[in-house]
Amino acid sequence: MGNPAAGQKKLLDRERFLQITRQLYDSEHFAYLLVDHQWQVLEVSDNLVDYGFPLLVPGLLATDMVDFLVGLDATEAITLPFINSPDGKPIRVRLLPEAANTIVMVSDATEEFLGQQMLQQKANENQLLLETQDKLMRELKEAKALLEEKNSQLEEAARLQSSFISGLSHEFRTPLSSIIGYSNLLIAQPSLDADTLNNNLEVVQRSGKHLLSLVENLLDHGKYNSSEITLNPKSVNLVALFNEIAMMVAPLAAAKEIEFKSRSELDGDLTVFLDDSRLRQCLINLLGNAIKFTDIGMVSLAASWEDDQLTVKIKDTGPGISSEHLQQITKPFWQAPGTGKAGTGLGLTITEQIIELMGGSMSIDSQLEKGTEISFAITASRVEAELETNGGPVTDIDDGMRLLFAEDDEDIAALTCLLLEEQGVAVTHVGNGEQALAELNSQAFDLVLMDLHMPVMDGFTAAKKIRDDGNTIPLIIMSASSNSADQARAQQLGCDGYLVKPVDIQDLLAMGQQFLLNRGTEK
Amino acid sequence: MVGDFAVGKTSLTQKFVNNIFSEKYLTTIGVKIDSAMVGDTKLIVWDVAGRDAQSPINTHYLVGADGVILVGDGTRSNTVDALEKLWQTTTERTGEIPMVVALNKHDDPDWSISAGQQQHLQEQGWTVFHTSAKNGENVREMFEALTGLIS
């Protein structure tokens, strides 16, 4: 048994101690909570509620009342420098574990919190500004790089344009000089011998066809970009087409004193269904290039047909193309620098586009100083002999054909009339649509051939009136406009055909024959 | 809620707990405690002050956590790149616990998470939410998904 007086004194000392401790906590802005290691409240300083804590009485579980204690280990010493008390006040919390209990010391951290928040806020905002600045600098650099690239592209485009214009000028002047020069010669010397006369006329014709192919390339480039290039397939004798091409380009090779070889593995009667004018355009472009760039040696053309596929190879012994330039060569307006050969830079572009449109593909194999081989293959269907009549030679159906021809250009009218009359067609020529309507009312015709752009009454108006009157006569438009909108309008007005000038008279007659045959069948 | 400063940890928490959003940026000092019910589960959210170049995460605040939301700012790719390191720091203190990733500010036109970053996060096997504290996109879904992983 202990001394009761001593025990009483010890109790008083402890109460005194706690009293002093509480006064100390109050004066130093501290509060405390004494818990056991299972968070059961043992003792609470009176001022704990001043720190935003709920009323905690001994026996309660502190973790039921104070969210931030949930999950903490009461046996682990830990300091939480800034935490919000249950009512949101900034406090500092320290867990001081002892052998059986843990003291949770709580102190007011408002002043320190506010000071640190001000500093941290500024530091973070500055850091955000720096990050934004870095980001803007990166975007600026990217924009600058993009602008430099665009600028470089614009400079390249300007260079290509300048080179294109000078090339175009040269390309046009050369055949024009031939046409004007030889025409002058023909006028000045009317009594030339037949061979010379023929030769001079062939030069004029060749130059004219070359000019036409240049114009077609230029127009097609614009059309391809707006997807306006269309194919008009028909029955074509391939051997005849390749012979014609060979005859057309052979003089160009001869003029440069290089050899031209044409090797065809095609059957003489091979007739296929394709757009011959587009194929011709591709062959002229490729052979024209090969001859232009080859100064020594030869250019060859080979064609073969197998499994409904036409394969064409064009080889030359020219300077060849570097692998770097091969990447560029089919880009519009691009021309290899330093060759000294003028051009439009459109021939290969258009050719590749047309071949793709025909469902084929073009490949270029070239070695510097050895030469170049360009090949392509297109698929077409073979036309059986009995179906060939549409594209076959003109027959006697032309004899006696009565054709009304409306055309305001006197030169074209005279030439067309001459060519048609040579084929036995009886042509009545008028200068505008109004006159055409008058003629149609006064006599009978088998076919109407109509220009579009004419004075007094244009071709569209005249065609509309003809159809509005109930007249079903075959009506073919012949115009310099290759615009697809014009072609669509003509079709909408009930015109049967549309031919773009210059018109091959055989094509015109074949079309006319076809319409007459169709009408005959319908009747 | 763990992530770099100014990624939107407090905004996501406030949107989830109180359904409020403020454009004004106010940095968190220490930790803010909030709670909300997800079904029958009371979720106590420790919104821990963001890490910055000068102050790493105070891992004392991570003690006792049952789950973590790693938050990155979809308009600041560096805060997304930092998530892997943050997760490593976190697990050193907490051990492997349930975690989801929030790529916040998905409403912002400056969103700049690259395909490579997105793929990298997925390769970690992490569940990633594109969130917006501003319009609430995926906020509740994300907290519910984490609660589901914890329960």
Q: Total strand count of chain A, please?
A: 18
Largest sheet of chain A: 5 strands, antiparallel
Strand line-up of the largest beta sheet of chain A: 2-1-5-4-3
Rg over C-alpha atoms of chain B, rounded to the nearest angstrom: 14 Å
Shape of chain B from CA axes?
globular
Residue share in helix of chain A: 40-55%
Oligomer: heterodimer
Mean pLDDT of chain B: 94
Q: Provide the β-strand percentage band of chain B.
A: 15-25%
Indicate the structural class of chain A: alpha/beta
H/E topology pattern of chain B: EHEEEHHEHEH
Q: Give the low-confidence spans of chain B.
A: none
Going across the biggest sheet of chain B, name each strand in turn: 1-4-5-6
Beta percentage of chain A is: 15-25%
Secondary-structure blueprint of this entry?
The complex is a heterodimer of chains A (523) and B (151).
Chain A lengths: L3 H24 L2 E7 L4 E4 L17 H4 L12 E7 L5 E8 L3 E8 L1 H79 L5 H32 L8 E4 H18 L3 E6 L6 E4 L1 H18 L4 E9 L2 E8 L6 H4 L20 H11 L3 E7 L3 E9 L1 E2 L19 E5 L3 H13 L3 E5 L2 H10 L4 E4 L8 H10 L6 E5 L4 H9 L4 E4 L4 H18 L1
Parallel strand pairs in A: 7-9, 14-15, 14-16, 16-17, 17-18
Antiparallel strand pairs in A: 1-2, 1-5, 3-4, 4-5, 6-8, 8-13, 9-10, 10-12, 11-12
Helix pairs in contact in A: 3-4, 4-8, 5-6, 6-8, 10-11
Chain B lengths: L1 E2 L5 H10 L12 E8 L2 E8 L19 E6 L3 H5 L1 H12 L4 E6 L10 H9 L4 E3 L8 H12 L1
Parallel strand pairs in B: 1-4, 4-5, 5-6
Antiparallel strand pairs in B: 2-3
